[in-house]
Each structure stands twice: as structure tokens, then as C-alpha cells.
Amino acid sequence: MNKLVEAINKGCLLVGLLGGTTSMIILIVIIGLVKECVGPKEDPMDVSNMKQRECYDRQYLIDSTRVGFELVWYTTNTVTPKRLKEIQSRQPIRKAQKQLLQEAPGHFNHDFFHTDIYDFARYARQFDVDPDVRLVNLFVYGMALEQQYLQPNPNLPDGCTEYNTSTQQGILYLEENDIYRHILSIAKEKKIKLIYVKEGDVLKIGGIKISIIHPENKLMINNPMNNNSIVCKVEYNSFSMLLTGDIEMEDEELILRKNINLKADVLKVAHHGSKTSTTGEFLKAINPKVALIGVGKNNNFGHPSNEVIQRLKENGTRIYRTDENGEISITVNKKGRIIKIQRCIT
Questions:
Q1: Exposed (0-12), middle (13-18) or buried (19+): which is 306, by Cβ within 10 Å?
Q2: C-alpha angle with apex 10: 4 to 14, nearest 5 degrees?
Q3: pLDDT higher for 9 or 250?
Q4: How far is CA 279 from the centre of its chain?
Q5: What are phi and psi of 174, to 5 degrees?
Q6: Cα–Cα nearest to 101, from 152, 50, 63
């Protein structure tokens, strides 16, 4: 660093002596030196202006009647061709895809004609084992199934009723946000009140206070399905619990910068205990006595990660996991003290 400062000092002297174009060239060289010495170290594989979300793979899953689904995976973020090639070489992704293609027919009794596309989407998404790749599009496949879906669908009042054979436009398919829209339509149908919340909102239900910490008005662009999860702090007298949805490190860092009081007795661990969340700094700010991890038994994602479990143990936090303990019930008294933690459903 001393050499860098010396070089900059010399450069400044030369600027004064030479002036004009020569001075500009020297300034550019100095800026390059600064970037090289103190700039962020980016992986060479990610250094490129040619970045876009790339199609990772496309697969067809068809039953004996020649109907089924077309599945399309994309990278979660914009990537360079080199990074795409590296992602495509990751064996756990290929292994999970192979497992999906092998197990899905049996799961749906080898009858895709009577398999609802929403049910298939929910099943298929559990095989997204890498945060860099997501199942983005799901098309129905086969003329008989296409015609079935081209009929008016009471669950999709704005669904398609036409089909262009050359472009496939009009064929019913799901994007990753469609299930969310489907839930909204059900809420509307059943006249369930929807409350859209954002950072700073406070809800009060009896003696319970729910403070919304995230998201902001400006939603996150990177991996929006996870990073725009609602983060809220639930308080009842002296009891407090932090619910973190599926947020990742990016959100945790954003929340920490706001100097909000995150301390809580209970932490609902983010993203099923994934290694993409629950950083040491975030955990230190919460300092929970109890951690709850919602995770499926023998899941394909490897959740919860060993790193997160180790951090919780080092913090002295008691850990409850739904794959080992079943559904968890926490009982507090009127003062807000935890008096019982037990299995609710096994």
C-alpha cells in the first residue's frame, strides 16, 4: 500500500508538470492501479459484459398415452457463457433432474392426463437443489392434454382458449409466479382479506404485535421469490420471535445495515437452514434461545446445511427441526415466558 501511495504522489506531481493529454493518461493508469490493488476480487469466470439469464435445460416427461409436461430450467441470475458451462457441470443438479424424471411418473400413478399442472409444479420444484438454477416454465405436452387445458378453467378465469401450433402461444403453462397468482384467485373467490405489507408496517392482533421488517417498497431483483419474503418480528409481552421466510445473505446484510433491534427469543431459520442464509453476523444480532427449522426429511437440497447448524450450536441455541421433531408447538404464559416446547404433529 505504501508503494501505491508513493506512485499516486508521483503521478500527481507529473500531472502538475505535464498537463494536457499526458496528464489524463497518467490519471487513467493511477485509477487502474487503485482498482487492481484495492478493488473487489471478482471471479474471472463472471467478468463479462455479455450476461443474461440462460436456459439451463429442457426435458419432456411423458406417460404411455404420450401426454405429459415440458420442463424448462433457467439460471436464477444473469451469467456469462463460462459461468453457464460451470453450472451445467454441477453433478447434484443433474442427479436431482434424473431423480425427478424417474420418480414423477410413479408419484402421479403414471397418469399425467389427470394430473393437475399445479400439483405437478409443486412436486417438481422440490428438485431445484441449486440456488443458481430454477424450474421456470412448465408446459402441458401432447394434443389430448393441450385440448383438455384449452377448455374454460374455473380456476383460471383469464386462461387461454386459443392455441397457435407454430409458436405454442396460448398453450397453458406455468411460470414460477403463477402458483402465487392462483392463490390470490382462491383468496378472492373465498373473500379472504389480503393485506399487502412492507417495511415499517405494524399489525396488532389482541396483545400480539407484528412488526414488518422486510421487504421495502422497492422489491429485490436478485432471486425475487426468496429475497422478497416477508420478515417480521412477533412480540407478546416479553416474548419475541423473528420470522425470516426464505431470505438470503443479500437481504440479511440489508436488514443489518438498518440497525433494527432484531433480538428475539425464537428464530424461524431462513430458507430451511440453507447455507445461503443465517450468516454469523445476522445470527449474532438476533441471539435466539430457540431456532426452528422447517425442512423435509431426506430432502434433495441437503437442508439444513452443516454450517448453519454449527453456527446455531456455537451460539448456544436450542435447535428444533421438523424432519426430526415433527411440527413444533411453543406455549408462552401471559407474561410472555416460554413454558413449553413440544411436538404438535409427528
A1: exposed
A2: 140
A3: 250
A4: 15
A5: -110, 135
A6: 63
